[in-house]
Design goal:
Two copies of one chain form a homodimer. Chain A is about 40% helix and about 20% strand. Chain A has 24 helices and 31 strands. Chain A is flat, with a radius of gyration of 33 Å. Chain A is an alpha/beta fold. The two termini of chain A are about 40 Å apart. Chain A has four domains: about 5-210, NAD(P)-binding Rossmann-like Domain (Rossmann fold, 3-Layer(aba) Sandwich), CATH 3.40.50.720; about 300-460, Rossmann fold, CATH 3.40.50.261; about 510-585, Dna Ligase, domain 1 (2-Layer Sandwich); about 590-705, D-amino Acid Aminotransferase, Chain A, domain 1 (2-Layer Sandwich). At the A-B interface, α5, α11, α21 and α23 of A face α5, α11, α21 and α23 of B.
C-alpha cells in the first residue's frame, strides 16, 4: 500500500498547534488543549489564542506565526468565518495539515458550503490537507495523541481502528468500547470531509502496526471506484468491517428498466464491499462484535465448529445459531469421542455439541477443549459457559485461557449471565479472547472469521480472477450507433440489437428485407426456421392483418411467404406504407433469463443476472456485480440465483448452455464499462438453449444517459 | 382463561416440604433449603432428611409423614431410585403437587425413561401433579417463593415471567436480567416435563397479576393444537414472546411432495405462533429486549415513528433501522415544525428525524419530545441519546422521564455509550422505560410493540375470522375412496381427482367414455373445448400413435374423434387393450399456482399456497398456515406470496379469479383437517383463470399415511 506523504503529519506530527485553545474550562477549546496534554503526546504542543497567557504549563501565543519549531499539524477551533485566514496563516508558517473542528460550514446550508469551498481552494493553493471541517478530530492511543474535545476518559489503547462519518458516533463508541472491554488504536472523525475522505485514510490507518482491524461507520463513499481499489489493497493485509447507513435516506435514481428498479442504491455497495473484501455489518453492535473476533483470533481453516457446553439448552441454541450462519457442526472423529469419554462422566454427551453436564470442572473444560482443538475435523470451537452450579465461571476461564492461547484455531466464548460470570469476563478480556453474551452472537463472530478466511484464500487465487479477454469487440460500430443520438432516451430496437452484435452477443435480431429474394437470403444466413413479419409504421397488430408467418423451413417458403404477408397487409390496410418484411430466426424454447447493466452514480457500471420475463420485479431473483466481471464472478452470479441454478439443470429441467450465458454476461459487463453513456442496458429475455446451442438476446432495450 | 385447580399448589402453596434437605452447605439440598428460607416465603416450611436434625431454625423430619399441617407442595431432591416411593408417601400425606429436581431419568437413557414412566403412573394413580423431573423448580418473586438450588442472589422482583425447557438457561437468565435492569415475576423450569408441560403453565402464569409479559424458551411443544388453543387465550390478555430452538436438531419427516419438502419443521411452528399471537424471537437477547418493551410501554396506534436526536449519524442509523423493520418515518405536521422551531437553534433540523444538534439541553429534549408526542401523525417516538458534549445524559434522562410517564404513546430510548450514560441508564430502568444500546435494537422493540398492537386489533375482529362454512362436502365419497386402500402410499390419479370433486374443488379430471355417444355426453357436461385421449394400459405415449385430439368444439367433433383415435391406436398397436377414450375439458391458459397440505406431527393439518409448476422448490415462494383456514387467513397467504400478488394482477399480468383460488385453498384445508389419514395432498398446478372463470386442479397427488 502506498501512503500519501501529505497525510503523514496527521498520524505522526512533530509538533501540534491548537488554534482556539481556551483558558475557560467550560469551552471546547479548553477540552481540546486538555486532551492533547493529557493524552501524553510526546511532540511539541503549542496553544494559540488572541488573548495570550499560559495554559497547563505552556505559553499561549497570539498568532500561529509566533509558534516555534517543530509544528506540522494544527487543530483549529475558531469561528467559521476566521478559518480561511487561519489556513493561509498556517500554510505560511509551514503547516501543511489542519484538523478543522469548527462547525458552520456545509452542514448549515449554502452559505456555509460556499465558505467550505473557499477554505478548500485556499488549502489546495498552498498544498495544505484538511481533515474536517465539523469533525471531532483524531486519536492515536499508541503514539499517543488526542486532538478531540471529548470529555475524558479517552479510549483505552487497543487494536481496533475506527473511521467515522459521524462525530457523535465516535463519542459513543469511545465510551461504549470501554464497557465492552476492547480498546482502540486509531480513531478518526471525518466531519464534512471537504478534502480528506474515508478512502484517503484507509491505507494510512492500516499501516499502523497496532491496528489489527479497521472499522468504518460510513454514510456513503466519496469515490466508489477509488474506494474499491484502496479497500482491496487494505483488506489483503488487514480486515475491514463497515457499517454503511443511509440506505433509506438517499433518493432513488430515475430508472426505466427492471435492472434499475431492482438495483436500488445498496446493490452497488454490496457488490463493492464483497469485491473489496469489506465485511458489512448491519448494526453498530455487530461492527464491534466482529472487530474483536477479527482482531484477536486466528482464522479457521474450514466451516466445521465444535461446541463445548455444560448444559443441553445452550448447546441446542448454539447449534441453531451456527446452522443459521451457514457453518457446519463438526463430526467428531472416533478418537475424540474416546478421549472425551476418559475425561467425562458416563452420562455426558460425547457427540457434538459435547455436553459435559452441569458439574463440569475447570479441568474438564480445559481437557475437553484441548481434545476438540486436536481433532482434525474441528476448525473452530465455541465454548459455552452459563453460570456453573458447582464451580465458578472465573475458575473455568482461568483453566481454559492457556489452552486457547496456544491454539492455532479460533475459540469463541459464549458466557451467559451477568454477576456470576463477571470475573470470567474480566479474565477473557485481559487475555484478548472474544466473549459474547449468548451463543447467537458468538456464532455470528465465528461466521465472520470464516468469511474472512475464505476471502483471503480466494483473493490469493488472484490469477484465476483475471478478466475474460475479448478480441472481437467492435468499438467503431458502437461509437457510430451512439453518435446517432443527440440526447438521452431509448435508442431504436434495431440499434440496440446492433449494439449487442457489435460486442459479440448473439441475438435473434429481425432484419428488414425489401424483396422476396433478399428475405430468402437473410433467412439462409440466420438459419431455419424463421419467422417473417410485415414492416409498416401503420401496422402495429401485425398478426391481426395476416402479417405474420411462423416456422418457415426453407427459402421457398420464405419467398412465398413474403408475397403473402404483403398481399394480406395491403388487403387489410390499403393505405399503409409497406417498408418490406422483417425476417427473424426462430429459436427453440430455451430457459429465459435477464441480463442487465446500469451506471451506478457512485460505483459505475453494475451488472445484473437473474430470473427474467415479465415477473422479474416480483420474484427479485437477481444478483448484482460491479463490471467488468471475471469468469469466476460471473459463475458466482449464476450460482447465487435460482435462474442460474436452473441453467445447471434441476430435477426435470434439462441443463442449458451456461457457458453461453456467462459469455453474454461478461460481454455486456464489458460494454457497460466501456461506454458509461449507456445508462441502462437490458436483455430480457436472453434465451439460453440446450448445451452447445448458445444463448440469444430475444429482446433488448438500451437507454442513453442525459 | 380457566386454570386447572390441580396446579394451584405450585403457585400458592400453604406449606412446602423439602425432601432431601441437607445440613451440608456444599450440597444442592442445602441450597434448596436456604433459597426457600431466604426467599421470604410466608407459608410453612418443612425439611425432610433421614438423618433428622435442625436446619436454619426448622426441625428436620425423618419422613414426610411426620410433617405437620399445612403442607401441599413438596420439592424432592433425592436419588432417582427413591422417587417412586417418595411420590407415594407424599400422596398419602395429602400432598398433590411435587417438584422433582433430581436427575437420572429420561435424559440418561431407556432405564431412566422407564423409571420416569413409573413415577408418572404412581402420580396419576394418586392424582398427584409433577413438575420435572430434572428441573430447577420455580420462583415467584412476589408471593414470594424460591424452590431452586441456584446460587444467590435470586431474581429481582419484576413483571416478566419466564417458562423454560432448559434449567441452565433459567440460571443464566436470572443472573443476566439483573445486569439488564429488569426483574422477573415468575420463573418455571420444566425439566423433562413428564407431567406438567409448558402448555399447562401458560394460563396459571398469565393469571399472576404481577406478570405483564410471558417469555418462553421452548425446545418444542408437547401438544401442538392444545398449545395453540391455550396460547390464543393467553395472548388476548398478555403478550407472549417465545424463543423456539432446535430447528436444526430434529430429523426431517419423510415426505413425497413439494409441500412436504418445503414445510420443514419450522413452518408449522411459525404458523402456530402467528395464529396464536405468540411473538417469535430469534435470539435470547431479543426475547428479553422485546419483553421489556411489552411489559412497560403503551401500545402504538399505528406504524409512524418520530425520531428525536442530538446528532445526525445516529438519526440516519435510526431511520435505516426503522425502515428495515417495516415502520414508517412519521411526516410531522406543520404545527409540530413550528413548535420545534420555537424551541431549537435555527440550524437544527425540524424534519423527522428531528436533530436538535449536539448542544441540546435537557429542557430542549423534554420540550421537543412533548411536541412530537402531541403530533397526531406520530404513533411512537425513539429518543436517541449519545454522550452529550455539553450536558449529562443523566440530566437529560431526568428531564424527559416525566414526559414519557404521562404519554399514552410508547417512547423507546436509544442510549449510546457506557460510562457517560450510566446515570441515565439507571434513571430509565428505575422508571421502567426501555432503553437499548443503539438505535437498531430500539427499532426492533418498536416493531414488536406495533406487531402486538396489530395482533390485538385483528384478534378483536374475531367474528371476521370465522371459518368458511361448506354445505356441499361429500364425506361419504371421501370415505369410500380412502377405504379402497389398505396401506399407505399414493392413491390413483382418478381417486385423487374424485377426492377433489367430493370437496367441491373443480378439476379438469379426465373421464372415461366407452362409446362415442358417451364421450359426447361427457363433453357436453364438462363444457367445450375438450381433448380426447386413448385409454389403454399398453399405450403410454398416446400422441405418438395418434391417440390424442385437442380443442374439439362440439359433440359432433367428439363423436368423430372417438372413432378416429381408436382407429389410429388399433392401427399402431393392434394388440393393445382399448378401454375407451378419456375426455378432458380444455381450459384456457391461466395463472398456475400450487396448493398443498401435509399433516405436521405436532400441529396437524398444514396448508401451503404459492408459486407452483416444476420450479416450486427452487423459488420457495410459498406460505404455510394451519388448517382449517378463515377467509382472512387465506387472503393473507395470497398477499404474502408473489404467486398470490400476481393473481391480483401486476403490470401486464391480468388479474385472475382470486376468489376461486381462495375457495380451493379453504376447501383443501378443510379436507386435510377432516381426514388426517391424508398425509400429503398437492394440487400442482391449480390453474386460476380470468376473473369469474374459476380455478381448476390440473394435476393432483394424494398420499395416504402408513
Amino acid at each position: 500500500m502506498k501512503i500519501d506523504p501529505s497525510l503523514t503529519p496527521f498520524f505522526s506530527p512533530q509538533g501540534v498547534a491548537i488554534i482556539g485553545a481556551s483558558l475557560d474550562p467550560t469551552k471546547l477549546g479548553y477540552g481540546l488543549s486538555r486532551n492533547l496534554v493529557q493524552s501524553g503526546y510526546r511532540g511539541a504542543i503549542h496553544f494559540i489564542n488572541l488573548k495570550g497567557g499560559n495554559l497547563m504549563g505552556h505559553p499561549v501565543y497570539r498568532h500561529i506565526s509566533e509558534t516555534p519549531d517543530p509544528v506540522d499539524l494544527a487543530v483549529v477551533l475558531i469561528p467559521a468565518q476566521a478559518i480561511p485566514a487561519a489556513i493561509e496563516d498556517c500554510a505560511q508558517r509551514g503547516i501543511k495539515a489542519l484538523i478543522i473542528a469548527s462547525g458552520g460550514f456545509r452542514e448549515t446550508g449554502s452559505q456555509g458550503a460556499a465558505l467550505e469551498d473557499k477554505c478548500l481552494d485556499i488549502a489546495r493553493a498552498y498544498g495544505v490537507r484538511l481533515l474536517g471541517p465539523n469533525c471531532i478530530g483524531l486519536i492515536d492511543t499508541h503514539l499517543p495523541i488526542d486532538t478531540t474535545f471529548l470529555s475524558p476518559p479517552g479510549p483505552t489503547p487497543g487494536d481496533v481502528a475506527f473511521i467515522s462519518h459521524s462525530g457523535a458516533i465516535c463519542a459513543a463508541v469511545i465510551d461504549w468500547a470501554r464497557g465492552q472491554g476492547f480498546g482502540l488504536s486509531r480513531m478518526v472523525s471525518l466531519g464534512n470531509q471537504s478534502d480528506v475522505t474515508e478512502t484517503d485514510l484507509l491505507a494510512p490507518v492500516a499501516e499502523d502496526p497496532y491496528t489489527r482491524v479497521i472499522t468504518l461507520y460510513l454514510e456513503g463513499v466519496s469515490d466508489g471506484r477509488r474506494f474499491l481499489e484502496q479497500a482491496q489493497a487494505v483488506t489483503r493485509q488487514k480486515p475491514v468491517v463497515a457499517l454503511k447507513v443511509g440506505r433509506y435516506m438517499s433518493s432513488q435514481q430515475a430508472v426505466a428498466s427492471h435492472t434499475g428498479a431492482l438495483a436500488g442504491l445498496e446493490s452497488a455497495y454490496n457488490a463493492a464491499f464483497r469485491r473489496a473484501g469489506v465485511i458489512r455489518a448491519e448494526t453498530t453492535e455487530e461492527l464491534f462484535d466482529w472487530a474483536r473476533a477479527l482482531a484477536w483470533c486466528p482464522l479457521p481453516k474450514g466451516r466445521s465448529v465444535g461446541v463445548l457446553t455444560n448444559a443441553g439448552g445452550p448447546g441446542v441454541t448454539a447449534i441453531d445459531a451456527l446452522e443459521a450462519q451457514g457453518l457446519n457442526i463438526a463430526n467428531l472423529s472416533s478418537g475424540t469421542e474416546a478421549a472425551l469419554r476418559d475425561l467425562l462422566d458416563p452420562a455426558a454427551s460425547l457427540k457434538n455439541p459435547v455436553d459435559m453436564l452441569a458439574a463440569a470442572t475447570p479441568q474438564q473444560y480445559a481437557g475437553c477443549l484441548q481434545v476438540l482443538l486436536d481433532d482434525a475435523h474441528v476448525d473452530s470451537v465455541m465454548v459455552i459457559l452459563p453460570p456453573p452450579p458447582m464451580h465458578t465461571a472465573g475458575g473455568i476461564a482461568k483453566a481454559i485461557i492457556p489452552v486457547i492461547y496456544t491454539a492455532d484455531k479460533p475459540v469463541i466464548v459464549a458466557l451467559m449471565g451477568e454477576r456470576l460470570i463477571q470475573e470470567a469476563v474480566e479474565h477473557f478480556r485481559a487475555a484478548r479472547i472474544p466473549e459474547y453474551r449468548f451463543p447467537e452472537r458468538a456464532a455470528e463472530a465465528l461466521a465472520v472469521l470464516t468469511q474472512r478466511a475464505e476471502y483471503l484464500t480466494s483473493s490469493s487465487e488472484i490469477q484465476e480472477r483475471s478478466l475474460q479477454p475479448f478480441n472481437d469487440l467492435n468499438s467503431v460500430a458502437v461509437g457510430s450507433i451512439i453518435s446517432k443520438y443527440d440526447s438521452g432516451g431509448f435508442i431504436s430496437q434495431e440499434d440496440a440489437f446492433d449494439l449487442m452484435n457489435a460486442y459479440g452477443i448473439p441475438t435473434v435480431q429481425p432484419q428488414l428485407a425489401q424483396t422476396a429474394h433478399q428475405a430468402a437470403d437473410l433467412a439462409e444466413e440466420m438459419g431455419f426456421p424463421v419467422a417473417i413479419k410485415i414492416a409498416s409504421p401503420q401496422i402495429t397488430h401485425k398478426s391481426d392483418v395476416g402479417g405474420v408467418l411462423l416456422y418457415l423451413q426453407n427459402s421457398q417458403e420464405v419467398e412465398n411467404g413474403f408475397a403473402k404477408v404483403i398481399e394480406n397487409s395491403q388487403a387489410a390496410l390499403p393505405d399503409a406504407d409497406i417498408l418490406g418484411v422483417l425476417v427473424q430466426r426462430m429459436i427453440p424454447a430455451g430457459q429465459d433469463v435477464i441480463i442487465g447493466a446500469i451506471q451506478d452514480a457512485q460505483f459505475g457500471a453494475l451488472v445484473m443476472f437473474g430470473s427474467g420475463g415479465i415477473e422479474v420485479e416480483g420474484l427479485k431473483d437477481v444478483q448484482f456485480e460491479l463490471a467488468p466481471l471475471s469468469i469466476k464472478e460471473a459463475k458466482q452470479m449464476l450460482a447465487d440465483t435460482w435462474a442460474g441454478k436452473k441453467l445447471h439443470g434441476f430435477r426435470n429441467i434439462p441443463p442449458a448452455d451456461q457457458g453461453a450465458a456467462i459469455d453474454v454476461l461478461l460481454r455486456l459487463a464489458q460494454l457497460a464499462c466501456d461506454y458509461p453513456q449507456l445508462a441502462e442496458i437490458e436483455i430480457n429475455p436472453l434465451s439460453v438453449l440446450e448445451q452447445g446451442k448458445g444463448a440469444f438476446a430475444v429482446d433488448v432495450r438500451v437507454r442513453l444517459g442525459g
